[in-house]
Amino acid sequence: MLEPPVRPIEWCDDHVRIIDQRVLPKVETHLDLTTPEQMADAIRGMALRGAPLIGIAAAMGVALEARRSAGEDLHGFRDRIAKAVALLRSTRPTASNLFWALDRMQAALEGGSPVESTVVLTDRLVAEALSIYEEDLEMGFTMGKIGVDLISQGDSILTHCNAGGLATSGFGTALAPVYVAARNGIDLRVFADETRPLLQGARLTAWELARSGIDVTVICDSAAHLLISRGRVDIVFVGADRITLSGDFANKVGTCGIAASANARGIPFYVVAPSSTIDFKMERGCDIPIEERDASEVTHVLGVRITPDGVSAYNPAFDVTPAELVSGFITEKGLIEPPFDQNIAAIGPGRPQIR
Ligand code: MRU
To answer: Which of 128, 339, 329 is nearest to 240 (CA)?
Structure first.
């Protein structure tokens, strides 16, 4: 496996070190988190974000609680872990990966003998959090190797939000094929939508691609349709926060419009996401809970008010793209093509690789 382009999170035994994504690209700084409460604040406050990364971070938050509570009696230990899991579950509602990772931590706690010592349980919870992290690295690299086959020499790739290394353990999802292509010597260019309101494209995607020497051009969100309709985009790669069994999926608000433009022009539109983003219990996109964030993220840009005093704003953080606009889902288990209502379920937990 290649070295990932960025390491947004590190387990450091008595703390978790994260890149503070709120202040990038102006300031490159880390935060050291020692409690699940601090981790929950970091997730809610977007110091770290991106579906796979918030799952990893939540798992590490539970592991921090285990270390803090290892001196408790067994009953107290289990109680404190349950409270940490509940707190971390409440941070953000849309991304499947968060609930998938916390379910794994819960299962790690409940597995084994009911009378295990808190020391044994702590070791198991820390090991599970580290496995979730390592598996995400592996999945990112694998998706990169699968997705690179869809990229041709000289391609222009459009992406939305940040589905790169910063949104994961390090390789990214939508950007993983881009990193593999660049390392294979394929000449390409990325158009990054700026992604209002929090500018994940302009700040984060541009930052991580530029520092890897990849040609990146930031465009206003509203310019994406023009570029697509004028033939300036060869392929679209986006990430996802939740994929349903029908193939409808949620991603950063604005994604659906890009999918519609790409579809109208016959431009391939691919979703790159690990299987941890698939909600195997949810049939359709209309059931996905959409996070609504504070209006101040819309009324202000980088802390400066841009709307008149007293004017209200509405801030849904994600939208849902219907399956019929999607060319395929690139997962670590292979490329899933239509009919999605059969082919997504077929890679369900424990199922074999597609190819
Ligand atoms: O609100 P964010 O920044 O967490 O939203 C992130 C996205 O929408 C990403 O595209 C998605 O999580 C996939 S990340 C690999």
So the answer is: 329
